[in-house]
Amino acid sequence: MKSVIKSITTFTALTAILGVMSFPPVLAADEKSVMEKGKSLAFDRKKGNCLACHVIKDGVSPGNIGPPLIYMSARYKSKEALHAQIADATVANPNSLMPPFGKHGILSDAEIGKIVEFIYSL
């Protein structure tokens, strides 16, 4: 009898664990969707236009005025720091050639957030 109860308890526990493990892919799909939107905005020649100045993985006809966008999580300690850079690079460097996308209304705060999710993953 104890063996049957132990088996049922083990089965129930494993089922609960596997059930909880099924939720992260849903979140990952949402994250992927945000990153895809961010990539689309970054590559859009009428919006982010990051490719005009930067080499980005999978980008076509990139520029070379700015640094390649690689190892971004090593270059920026947080997504907030990267967000601030994209929103207005002239705060950190008044001589920056990078357009202040947020300050000039080129991109909304939400659009910059999506681009940050994509760029920070590079």
UniProtKB/TrEMBL annotation:
Q: Which domain of life is it from?
A: Bacteria
Q: Which UniProt keywords apply?
A: Heme, Iron, Metal-binding, Signal
The Cytochrome c domain, residue ranges: 33-122
Write the protein's name. Answer: Cytochrome c domain-containing protein
* Entry-linked InterPro entries: Cyt_c-like_dom (IPR009056), Cyt_c-like_dom_sf (IPR036909), Thiosulf_SoxX (IPR030999)
Keyword Heme among record annotations: yes
Indicate the secretion signal residues: 1-28
Source organism of the structure: Candidatus Venteria ishoeyi
One Pfam match, given by its short name, reads Cytochrome_CBB3
